[in-house]
Design brief:
The complex is a heterodimer. Chain A has 2 domains: 102 residues, Urease, subunit C, domain 1; 308 residues, TIM Barrel (Alpha-Beta Barrel), CATH 3.20.20.140. Chain A is 30% helix and 23% strand. Chain A contains 13 helices and 19 strands. The longest helix of chain A has 17 residues. In chain B, helix 2 links the parallel strand 1 and strand 2. The chains are: A alpha/beta, B alpha/beta. The interface between A and B is medium-sized, with 16 and 15 residues.
């Protein structure tokens, strides 16, 4: 990012939606020195600082930039799939101003020196903010906890084994116990690998018809239920990285009613697609955890609307030809998504399933708050990390237009309504 | 010390733990031990109060300082001391603890000193023999003579135990030293704090009579005595704590952390130390360290325990 501050900028004639305080009103927003200096309906041109540049938003939405807390970047080790440069370009194009990258790299982010390396690379090559999660266990092996204290001090915002579950309950218990001392957030992928077995998609009629191995929802719910008991035992802050089914919602609801420090996320894929989208073995729809039924999808959307599910993530996972152009069972799971997260999520708004403020909250305010990051709000003094959205522009996604190095999007050729017009990080336009 | 010699008698057959000892008994043992501190600094260190008695040191766990300390204590009091270590014992050949006890009992020992890796093993054995039994450490339960020698060391340096604030730091979960110290210090009206990561604290630690702290800076504030505990190597690589580096960074006692305590705070460690893990060399060897004095007090306290028990043994 360039070092000199740009001149003051006024986003005029906007629809300001701030999920942090629940406001949704017409107004203008003044940016100076990388932060939001002022905002509201009362901003008059004669009260602006000298040299203020004005952008007419023509009534479009101005909201806090998105915070994607589950985004795989290939650095270090898998630069051929994604670099910080390409991932942050894709993020900027998608209105995402902060990405939280995952530790499943080579080497694994389980050492403070690697956190430090990543933050330096992000500073030098990224155009949006990048915060790493560190590994929960050394080498993601599920056996020994990592240095939560030193890693957190180095800049790790949470601890996760990425798309792996810690199957050993004693290891998880001790990690949670230790994490609590450092107020470290544990983010866990809840899928029991033993119950997954040979499964590659949701277990049910459709998997039977396709002749593919099924993954029962119990692979998720048993692990999630175990974790809730361990949270109760240890008091650790816990976030379910990606839940996919109605039964898991009941578990989260019960834990929250008990007052446990628990949050949950769902991926935008599970909110907008279901197992039928696999169609005739489309490997771009092979995900981990798998797409579930339409009933599950609708339940998840309801849960985002009422706040039971706190956060929506992209689960951005670049995979290319060599891992995707394979028979379904042999293909790698994962989909790119950081760039399409917002337009895809807007489907829920247009379908009347999730009100816009609740949707934007799950995409920005809630993850920022959970991770202790300063964004996710339009409040005065907050960083000017912003997205300008045209809610109604129709367009068709061409995967070759994506900025990511990999093009494995389940939304290829999909019709979208609404897109990102401009993205600003610290007051600078990084897209649009 | 010019007062009359102590005639204190420990009016019980065994010393299995600090639990159950009255403040008077603890004080009696410490006063008696003071006499042996004086004796041990003389050229003529021998007494004859245990002459004719047989003391067996039965150590199922390796020990250098405790076993040699008990051996020296028994010999200075005139007992015949036999060391039985695991390597030579029938346990290796499959004999049960009870059979070993009955075998030894048939040799008519007067005092059995025992250490075992299982909590409660010493008490179990004490029920099967006719002699006195002294617990030299059972599992993660108690190590009463260590707590007594620590108390003697503190009392000699601070003049008292009551109203002192003592912080016990580190692996309290696995420490019999910590348990015995917590009981003794509470009985003597000292304030006890436990400082360590939650993974190394026992369940319901507050109920054991300690204030629990997870942070050294907070926990060491206004502390008179900092008692460090040994962290076993197999527990510091990700199972209970992530690594030696992280443990030392947050919980190792170095000069910077010691400054959080009172300026005249004193540092103790039951040994053997892991320098650079739970304690830095500069603190271990520094002016505030009592670590070597603890070893000296160990012999005196064990002489006091043996003598106080022997005074209660039948003479016929």
């Amino acid at each position: 990012m360039p070092l000199t501050d740009p001149r003051p900028l006024l986003l005029a004639n906007a629809r300001l939606i701030d999920p942090a305080d629940g406001t949704d009103r017409p107004g203008s927003l003044l940016i100076e020195g990388g932060v939001i200096r002022d905002q509201g309906t009362e901003l008059r041109p004669d009260s602006l600082p000298d040299g203020t540049e004005t952008i007419d938003c023509e009534g479009r939405v101005v909201a806090p930039g998105l915070v994607d807390m589950r985004c795989f970047v290939g650095e270090p080790g898998y630069e051929y799939r994604e670099t910080i440069a390409s991932a942050t370009k894709a993020a900027a194009a998608g209105g995402v101003t902060t990405i939280v990258c995952q530790p499943s790299t080579e080497p694994v982010i389980d050492d403070p020196a690697i956190v430090d390396f990543l933050l330096r690379r992000a500073r030098d090559t990224g155009i949006v903010r990048v915060h790493p999660m560190a590994a929960l266990t050394k080498k993601l092996a599920g056996r020994e906890m990592t240095e939560f204290g030193l890693l957190k001090a180095a800049g790790a915002v949470a601890f996760t084994d990425g798309a792996r579950s810690v199957t050993d309950a004693l290891v998880m218990r001790r990690a949670m116990t230790y994490a609590r001392d450092f107020d470290a957030l544990i983010v866990h992928h809840t899928e029991d690998p033993n119950l997954i077995g040979e499964g590659v998609m949701n277990e049910g009629e459709f998997s039977s018809r396709l002749g593919l191995g099924g993954i029962p929802v119990e692979a998720e719910t048993i692990m999630l239920e175990r974790d809730m008991r361990l949270v109760k035992l240890t008091g650790a802050r816990y976030h379910a990285a990606s839940i996919t089914c109605r039964d898991s919602l009941a578990i989260i609801a019960r834990a929250k009613n008990e007052g446990l420090p628990v949050t949950a996320a769902v991926t935008v894929n599970h909110l907008t697609l279901n197992e039928n989208d696999i169609g005739s073995y489309r490997t771009f729809c092979k995900l981990s955890p798998p797409l579930r039924t339409e009933d599950d999808r609708l339940a998840l959307a309801d849960a985002v609307a009422d706040g039971l599910v706190d956060i929506v993530v992209s689960d951005h996972d670049p995979q290319d030809v060599e891992t995707k152009r394979l028979p379904f069972a042999e293909a790698a799971p994962g989909a790119v998504g950081v760039e399409t997260m917002l337009p895809a999520a807007l489907r829920l708004h247009h379908a009347g399933l999730v009100p816009l403020p609740a949707l934007l909250k799950s995409l920005s305010t809630a993850p920022a708050k959970l991770l202790g990051l300063p964004g996710g709000t339009l409040a005065r003094g907050a960083p000017a990390d912003l997205v300008v959205i045209d809610l109604d522009e129709p367009w068709v996604l061409d995967r070759d237009d994506l900025h990511s190095k990999c093009k494995n999007s389940p939304f290829d050729e999909a019709r979208m309504t609404g897109r990102v017009v401009r993205t600003l990080v610290a007051g600078r336009t990084v897209h649009g | 010390m010019t007062s009359a010699p102590s005639s204190f008698v420990l009016n019980r057959r065994h010393l299995l733990g600090i639990e159950g000892l009255s403040p008077q008994e603890i004080t009696g043992l410490l006063d008696l031990a003071e006499e042996f501190v004086t004796l041990n600094r003389q050229v003529e260190k021998k007494r004859t109060t245990l002459r004719g008695r047989t003391q067996i040191n039965l150590f199922f766990e390796a020990s250098t300082r405790t076993q040699s300390s008990f051996e020296l204590a028994g010999k200075r009091l005139g007992a015949d001391v036999m060391n039985m270590s695991v390597a030579q014992s029938s346990i290796k050949k499959g004999e049960t603890l009870i059979d070993t006890a009955l075998t030894l009992n048939a040799m008519h020992p007067d005092i059995l000193i025992m250490r075992h890796a299982a909590s409660g093993a010493v008490e179990l054995l004490s029920k099967k023999v006719d002699c006195s039994v002294v617990n030299a450490g059972d599992g993660t339960h108690e190590h009463p003579t260590q707590a007594l020698l620590d108390a003697l060391t503190i009392r000699r340096n601070k003049g008292r135990l009551e109203r002192l604030t003592v912080a016990i730091c580190g692996d309290i979960l696995h420490s019999r030293v910590a348990r015995s110290n917590i009981i003794l210090l509470n009985a003597m009206q000292a304030r006890v704090r436990a400082i360590g990561p939650s993974t190394l604290l026992p369940a319901a630690a507050e109920r054991l009579g300690v204030e629990v702290y997870r942070d050294m800076q907070e926990g060491l504030k206004d502390v008179d005595i900092v008692m460090m505990l040994r962290l076993q190597r197999e527990r510091m690589n990700g199972s209970f704590v992530p690594s030696v580096q992280e443990y030392f960074h947050f919980y190792g006692l170095d000069e910077a952390k010691l400054r959080y305590a009172k300026p005249d705070a004193l540092v103790m460690h039951p040994g053997p130390m892991n320098r650079g893990v739970e304690i830095s060399t500069s603190v271990a060897d520094g002016a505030q360290s009592l670590i070597r004095e603890q070893v000296e007090m160990g012999v005196a306290v064990r002489m006091a325990v043996l003598e106080a028990l022997a005074r209660n043994l039948p003479n016929a």
